Amino acid sequence: MSAPMMNRKCVLSLFISSLRQLQEVSLSKPYLNTTRLRLPPNIYIRNSLENPFIKHFKTTASNNLNIKYKFSKPVKRDPLETVQLFDGSDKLICKLTLGDAQKKAKKENMKLLDIGRNPDGVLSFKYLSGKDLYQEGMKLRKTKKSSKEKEMKVVDILWKIEDHDLNRKLDNAVESLKKGHPVKFNIKGKVRLAEEATHKLLLNELKKKVKNKIETLAFIDEASSEGATFRLVARPIEEVSSEEVSPVGVSPEEVSPEEVSPKDGK
User: Fold this and answer.
1) What is the pTM of this model?
2) What is the rounded CA–CA span in Å between residue 241 and residue 243?
3) Which is higher by pLDDT, 130 or 104?
4) Which of 3, 123, 139, 255 reaches 20 to 30 Å from 245, CA-CA?
5) Would you give the DSSP letter of residue 102?
6) CA 137 to chain centroid
7) How many CB atoms lie under 10 A from the CB of residue 123?
8) 101 contacts 112 by C-beta, under 8 angstroms
């Protein structure tokens, strides 16, 4: 028998023994990930994309062992518990048991959206179609996105910065302002030259370049300087104007008919 054939048989036998060990461990501990195959020392296998046999083994081993991966346990609720169903406009539809609500939703091809319990402790659901459920999710995403505080970006500018580096940093700052992020600029001079007129002139020139680049996009506040460092804080104009103009505590019923724009020429 040739040497290559003996090597192949040796590797195959080692592989089969490892597979049996893996099967025994997986049956005793089904939560283990079966795709991590441990081979004996000095035995290596190529990437699964290069070796179709290994790829086939990885995809079918867990199915053969009937292993189920549990990411989170669903909340168990009493099917006899009384719940409330609301439509998309938060109008009460009916009260019934949870089991009947699930049967009703399945029969009418509708969805139950859990909105928590009311002050009396009654479990409540919105009774929505698939389209309405998608729109409800989009509204929730927009609300979370708008309520999330914008992270302040920090831009450090050294006194000896080259023009192309300065332009690159200012372009990045402009992009951040357009996305609604406030930006803080730290214009750092050299401490030993802080009192020299030429050095102050250089820092003022850098400050002027920064202001000229962003003055149409942001309100600029000059923060207190420390030593040879000047600080500028830029806030997007849209963010500031929305904080100043947005009405607070106005309900839809308080809007007069004249303030509602006509639709479709009516």
Assistant:
1) 0.38
2) 5
3) 104
4) 139
5) H
6) 14
7) 17
8) yes
For residue range 143-164, list pLDDT tens digits in order.
Answer: 666 555 678 889 999 988 999 9
Band (183; pLDDT cuts 50, 70, 90): very high
The closest alpha carbon to 130, from 104, 107, 103, 112, belongs to 112
Reported as half-sphere exposure (CB side, CA atoms, 13 A), residue 204 has a value of 7
Radius of gyration of the chain (CA): 33
- Can you point out the beta strands (E) in the chain? 82-86, 92-97, 111-117, 123-128, 153-158, 183-188, 218-226, 229-236
Angle between helices 3-28 and 52-64 (to 10 degrees): 30
**143: phi > 0 → left, psi -120 to 50 → alpha, else beta; which?**
alpha
d(CA 111, CA 134): 10
Domains along the chain with CATH numbers: 9-64 (no CATH), 82-147 (3.10.20), 153-243 (3.30.110.10)
* Residue in 216, 239, 217, 214 with CA at minimum distance from that of residue 157: 214
- Report how far residue 36's alpha carbon sits from residue 111's, in angstroms, rounded to the nearest whole number: 39
- Residue 157, number of CB atoms within 10 A of its CB: 24
Confirm if 99 and 79 have CB atoms less than 8 A apart: yes
3-state secondary structure of 153: strand
| Phi, psi at 108, each rounded to 5° | -95, 10
pLDDT tens digits, one per residue of 12-21: 777 777 766 6
Mean pLDDT computed over every residue of the chain: 70
